Amino acid sequence: MWFSVIALLLVSCGDDFLVEEPTGNEPTIKQIGEAGAVNPEINGAFMTGVYSTMFTTGTGGTGSQSDFGQKGFDIYSDMLTGDIALTLSTYGWYRAAITEFQAPLDFTQQENYQGWRYYYRVINRSNLVIETVLQEPQPEEEADLIAIINGLTDENRHIVAQAFAMRAHSYFNLTQLYINDVTASWNSPTLPIYVVADLVGNEKSTTEAVYQLIEDDLTRAISLMDDFSRPSKVEIDKPVAETILAYVLASHNDNRWTDVVALTNSAMSGSPASLMTADDSINGILGGFNDVNASGWMWGIDLNVDIGLGLVSWWGQMDAFSYSYAAVGDNKAMDQGLYDSMRADDIRRNQFLDDPLSTRNLQPLNKFFDSDRIIFGSSQIVKADYIYMRYAEPLLLNIEALYHTNPAGAKTALKDFAQTRIDDVSYIDALNGQALLDEIYKQTRLELWGEGKSYYAMKRNKATTVRGDNHLTFVGEPIPWNDERMTLEIPLQEIQDNLFINDQN
User: Fold this and answer.
1) Ordered domains of the chain (ranges, CATH)
2) What letter would DSSP give residue 252?
3) pTM above 0.90, yes or no
4) Are 351 and 285 contacting, i.e. CB atoms less than 8 angstroms apart?
5) Three-state DSSP state, 72
6) Where along the sequence do coiled-coil regions lie (predicted)?
7) Which of 481, 425, 433, 478 lies closest to 456 in space, CA to CA?
């Protein structure tokens, strides 16, 4: 009976929380927590529910065909930066709201609600896991929390650690997508904080308070994961949590670069993953980015027939070899200027079709592809997986952090990385100061194109982007990182439902 009730609660998209006191036959948080103390599979099932939010359609609360979990916001963010160009728009997805910036300038647009609803849903479900494992809401005092955690089994300790990490990951994404300038708003109220499993409406906390929660959650999770050996790459492990924390620290505090170096070094040394090679095998950068077993992947999900993804998916929107929009007229391609910035001997040029006469020009036909490689092919996504993080991320962030702490070391590390992609890297020897940092930033954009990370890098580097001539709008217009068009708005629904928030600012 317990598992049937839990299964029903996990798939419910309505309330996303359990009642403290039962109104019928449903269990309370405490009752499920007591059962989970005996059988950790129960708590594990709730954690699986958190991860499933990342790839389930509609988890942003809409029926939009761009609403399919974390990878949907990876597209949003890469399009906002301009690194992904919408070069042909037949069906209109992403065009007005994202590429023409209507959503960032109009809080009534559903794209604002979609991101807000998705990340707070993950937060709520993470809080639910924390409460069921602890058998009570999270204590306010850290000492009380640690005392409870110390009494848990190893399995339950690892489950609650993952929940802390997922909660932090969501709050971090909210700071990036919904706060225009983190530093300028450090002492201003920006986002509501929830640490209990009930989204009843809270007032906005300061950016500083949100970041403190994120850092506390990740620091705690990293400590609790010391002896965690995850069963699959869908779970967050210690190196993944360390990389997330490195992103967090790099995003707001110039005095934390030494910590970023330490975290990324630890993540790389502790992960079994490695840098993807320049060949076309499963482990190579021309290998399709379609198999979670690739040695370069640190975090991802093995999509299968039971998950049932099809047209409404990241693959459907990005991949011409999947049966969906990218195949039939909603083309997503690399920004022309970014492509032209690649050196002629850069192997990554081969990830994109270079044919100015083709309507598919600069589509990532050799970076992302369903393994059948038939244009407008598979209608079900079963031979292509979702990537959330790979080894190149802590590596490139480490090089960026080294620039701020040890520029000579950064130059050496950049050359080591670049020579895996470029035949002649001697040009790096002449780079110093801002020119060196600009090259690190460019290499990050080139390496991680289409993976949802260029938005973080743009904000970290306070960069200005200029759209190339293969965009449909705003071609050649410089758009700085803190332009209002780069940040989503608190949605109308939140303002209507939350009595503590009365405007989108």
Assistant:
1) 29-58+101-228+480-504 (1.25.40.890)
2) T
3) yes
4) yes
5) helix
6) none
7) 481
